[in-house]
Amino acid sequence: MPLFNRGQDQAGATWEPQAADSRLADTAGAKAGGVFTSDLSVSEYVLLGEAGFEPLGFVVGSSIYHVGMQVGRWSQNQELQVLSQAMYNARELAMSRMQSEADHLGADGIVGVELRMQMYAWGQEVLEFVATGTAVKAIGGTGVHRAPNGRAFTSDLSAQDFFRLLAAGAVPVAFVLGTCVYHIAHQSAMQALRQAGQNQEMIQFTQGVYDARELALSRMQAEAAQAQAGGIVGVNVAVSNHVWGEHATEFLATGTAIRRLAAEHRLPETSPKPAFTLGLDF
């Protein structure tokens, strides 16, 4: 099972602070009295402050990537490794550039990370991968909330879940992912005829989908271990076909890797706890 290298094809990610300099220069993280930008709701902004963090700026990373071609055997379940590598590299470029913007602002982390893909009319095989989030910093902090490598943590948790995680004595480490583009074998004409009108499991399809999902989950788990995390929360496995046809499918596993904080860095017991109030008026 090949595990893709985060460092591969990252040379192009070195320009992003300069590319976004005109926007980042006036944010709260770049100068005193600067204006912060964020994708936080009002409730999330208030709760972030209660957790002892302040927003610095809205950070973005983008990569427009040409996805290559690879031929799979018509009747065989197999991973399409060229496509898996392309989809991984493109997302990692976007994530790396978003994180570089956060580092440029001196952030301790990024919350509310969203990683999406979009297509343009000028190329069916050209895809843009965009990573966005809000860079945050602990008020009066000393960097203890950063990832073990000293860089800003990344997390797709909402501000509410981020607050609960801190209250429980843990902190995000990294938004981790694992991907696998897999060719699901076609059925032969004889197989289709034999099962016509019968209730039966389609073993070939089950095995292919199972193997592809396991590859994606294993790679996500390996990323968390490499980031020195203790676990992953909010795991999600998405299935997409993109532009390759119905039998070439991408399985994408994502989640937020977390680690435990020392007891002295936990939120105090007096910190307000999120509550939901249900009105009884009809």
Question: Characteristics of this structure?
Answer:
29% strand, 7 helices, Translation Initiation Factor IF3, 4-stranded mixed β-sheet, 282 residues, alpha+beta
Description:
This protein is α+β, with helices and mostly antiparallel strands and 282 residues long. The protein has one domain (15-260): Hypothetical protein apc22750. Chain B (Translation Initiation Factor IF3, 2-Layer Sandwich), CATH 3.30.110.70. Helix content is 28%, strand content 29%. It has seven helices and eight strands, in the order αααββαβββαβααββ. It has helices at residues 16-19, 21-24, 42-50, 81-104, 159-167, 189-194, 203-226; strands at 53-66, 78-79, 109-120, 123-138, 153-154, 170-183, 231-240, 248-260. The chain has a four-stranded mixed β-sheet with strand order 1-4-3-5. Strand 3 (109-120) and strand 4 form a beta hairpin. Helix 3 runs parallel beside helix 5 (159-167). The chain is globular.
Helix and strand topology:
Elements: H1 16-19, H2 21-24, H3 42-50, E1 53-66, E2 78-79, H4 81-104, E3 109-120, E4 123-138, E5 153-154, H5 159-167, E6 170-183, H6 189-194, H7 203-226, E7 231-240, E8 248-260
Parallel strand pairs: 3-5
Antiparallel strand pairs: 1-4, 2-6, 3-4, 6-8, 7-8
Helix pairs in contact: 3-5
